[in-house]
Amino acid sequence: MPTKSKKTKNVRVAAIGGLGEIGKNMYCIEYNDKIVVIDCGIKFPEDDLLGIDYVISDYQHLIKNRDKILGLVITHGHEDHIGGIPFLLRQLPGIDIYAGPLALALIQSKLEENGLTKDCQLNEINEDSVLDFGEMSVTFFRTTHSIPDTLGVAVHTPEGIIVQTGDFKFDLTPVDGQPAPNLQRMAKLGSDGVLLLMSDSTNAEIPTFTKSERFVGTSIRNIMGAIEGRIIFASFASNISRIKQASDVAIEQGRKIAVFGRSMEAAIKNGIELGYLDYPKDTLIEPKDVNKVSGDKLMILCTGSQGEPMAALSRIANGTHKQISIVPGDTVIFSSSPIPGNTASVNHVINGLEEAGANVIHGKVNNVHTSGHGGQEEQKLMLRLMKPKFFMPIHGEYRMLKIHTELAQLCDVPKENCFIMENGDVLEVNHEKAEVVDHFPASDAFVDGNGIGDIGNAVIHERQLLSEDGLVAACATVKMKTGQILSGPDILSRGFIYMRESGDLINQAQKQVYHAIKQCFREQQHVNESMLNEAIIDALQDYLYDKTERKPIVIPMIISV
Amino acid sequence: MPTKSKKTKNVRVAAIGGLGEIGKNMYCIEYNDKIVVIDCGIKFPEDDLLGIDYVISDYQHLIKNRDKILGLVITHGHEDHIGGIPFLLRQLPGIDIYAGPLALALIQSKLEENGLTKDCQLNEINEDSVLDFGEMSVTFFRTTHSIPDTLGVAVHTPEGIIVQTGDFKFDLTPVDGQPAPNLQRMAKLGSDGVLLLMSDSTNAEIPTFTKSERFVGTSIRNIMGAIEGRIIFASFASNISRIKQASDVAIEQGRKIAVFGRSMEAAIKNGIELGYLDYPKDTLIEPKDVNKVSGDKLMILCTGSQGEPMAALSRIANGTHKQISIVPGDTVIFSSSPIPGNTASVNHVINGLEEAGANVIHGKVNNVHTSGHGGQEEQKLMLRLMKPKFFMPIHGEYRMLKIHTELAQLCDVPKENCFIMENGDVLEVNHEKAEVVDHFPASDAFVDGNGIGDIGNAVIHERQLLSEDGLVAACATVKMKTGQILSGPDILSRGFIYMRESGDLINQAQKQVYHAIKQCFREQQHVNESMLNEAIIDALQDYLYDKTERKPIVIPMIISV
């Protein structure tokens, strides 16, 4: 056997997404020209990404290295871990995907929706699976999170074990039927020797141990026990444990259950098929029948707990929902915490519901929510179980990653062995040392409708400007040889100010454009369209800012003849 | 090899102390006529045990079975785990004792004080020690608590592993130099299969994860950083980590340190010898020199954080301390929580200190204390690590044991496999089943000065009555043949009310006694002393209760001639 080159002795670890952000998790572990990919998520756009449906990663690193890819291993079925799969498969058909039963069912639905079922091989795994990839192998350990079937991943390489925790909390008393975290297996990895730990940083700013889901169940039971009217229960569709806990209480109270929202319907269908959920006959009723059941015998399960404008709950709140109007006596339970950035939207929905007469119960006040991610004590517990030589915080914004490395240092990982990385940074690690040696492009790619990557930051910036100050267009037909203005200039605007109510402003703006065109022809010898455009933009922007302190996008539309 | 009788196949597990109480921990694990004893503690008397110094266990079960005892294994050096050793050795000399370095040093001091060094063999152990006792062997696992060198104990029997956790929290970031809990070893025991888990129940009522000692260090540093005057720092002498954290900050601030209180002096001496504490030359000063150092350059470490009346701090608070009087600008830090039952005494000391002009900083408000025992999350973590077949909560009052069994059930130990026991109850357990089959005497024994066991509950009850309402004695010299009262009756009282200020009450009481004696002779033919005593007690008790609503102990003292 020939001596291997230095390069092949290192494991190369990188994030395609998931570092410096919450969302679009995707990591790759490379050894000797073979790559194991872990997760493929989307990120939900923040409020400033106007008109964008999702954000995914730029997959060009994987496309370039397509022949090295051994497979895509999925930790769990949340969108920020599986949502990118359809977009990846369009660019890289034929990848083998390995996932637990629930995640697999959710992926299957996605592939069916997108007509991609033939573009990959789906393989069901559980925590006892071993993926034998030759020099590398992959094993798993059971964790707990806000969705069942959550796995941590251990990639065994000749240089040592690379552990990626997936999303986790240590829920030591998970709700019925779900197993506790496999502490023994984690400790065994620690005893065997973990080279690099890549661990979930989401709650690195929370100093405590996250409450068990069971604890939330108790609160939900107490709260629902005191409600006499109709209950509208909103949570993440993926939080099947939560849906089960609320459903169990509703069933005990003899309530029928109606489900609103496409993702909630899909989640409940999957949950029933996989045995996580169980509804007695005739408990689930059709949305159209909700008004046939008296309020005290009804619970509505719905999406929209994040204030999403098109979700059922927002439409209920603003009175535009077809089947449901709030009546006094209704109680709406938000069994969730607003993701930062959604707070305003959620508050807007809560206000709407309360104004319509509902009683609204939400997270922090009432213990009707707990995080799916472990706090500092659990992050330290993972560190102490794994006892890694090197540490790389993942799944978090910069400040979370930073705090997580401080925790690692308190747990005896030397500071120089902790790596706060960015998407695209490549960490080379072997049994002796680790360093960041390379970087590949891994920027955001925006998904807008069906288009991927046809929208860049410049487009988003324009949408931001449009959303803030609107646009003003100036049209004129100009004879380019003479400078004669044959028609116009006409001014129209969208999202700016009510021009009609400011007749003077329009008149003056028209005059500004007129003079700008005339001046252009006076001062220049060979006037072309772009010179006119520039002159109009300058003149109109200055004038409008001067009069209104706004900066609408100015669009000159010269028809040259 | 002959078939063993059924009896020898069972492991017999019992507590000699520690169940239904916080204190005097002592457990025994018996297999095939051999006994491993774990810990030998005292209990500090509660307020209603008047005049009692300590409470220990009745050791008669061990005395009867002296030939079976293999050794006494110590989990850590707190008084409620080692304090009973001198009393045990007086009754059972020659026992082998196994303990970690710090506990061993503390035991050694006790034995020297009591002249008992020749009565046992002391053996130093650490978490890697294996005690080979033939059919049984004992191994250890490192835990964390409020004293260094804390071990959990695993007794390996042919029927399975019996784990006794000792006192523990999961301090995942212990202060400098101390190791974290050995999660890998605990998980390995769980993988190998734990037959019975006996686990610390102290904080079963606290739903959270107990804060790390390091967190307290940060608070102490912040608080001490803002103090300009003299600092008086009070904590348990055994809490060496706490003493180290306060000392480190004081040293950084250029303060000299004076130590008050015998147990604090001993703790610091041991801590230095064993390497847990380190003071630069000339940092520690003699108590007599405290007034030679300016306040901003001095910290006083002292005992008395529980309000003990004879401890340094109480004497400082009430102005009877020889060297130290409180002056304005002094800050007293209570780095402890009052043990329930001591709250009133602690408040009394705090009031005294504040009245004298000190600024007092205490536990809950300022994060200057954290418990040494794990909360519910840590108790569940221990259960999940050990995955026991049977469970027996130890180290706690009944309600704590009760809640702890509920946690065990949430962690998948069946209810019928959980045993809430009392001191003296014997649990027989084999690899298939467990049941309580026997009970031996294991009552409290009171230590009052040098006497052990010469004080029983009746004496304590009398002390209670005396302490509540005092005593009233009636003396008279009576000629028994005639009934003539030769002198008296005289009335004297202690702890009742100021009789002198109630001349009328005395006069009337004398008359009651006089009439009672006379009536006795009138109505009875053969009057004896006990008849007179009874008559006097009845008369005087009724009269005094009628007039004062108090029930002093009435002591008739008839001198019969």
UniProtKB/TrEMBL annotation, chains A, B:
Residues 23-220 form the Metallo-beta-lactamase domain. GO terms for biological process: rRNA processing. Pfam families: Lactamase_B, RMMBL, RNase_J_b_CASP, RNase_J_C. Its EC number is 3.1.-.-. Zn(2+) 1 binds at H76, D80, H81, H145, D167, H395. It is found in: Cytoplasm. Homodimer, may be a subunit of the RNA degradosome. An RNase that has 5'-3' exonuclease and possibly endonuclease activity. Involved in maturation of rRNA and in some organisms also mRNA maturation and/or decay. This is Ribonuclease J. The gene is rnj_1.
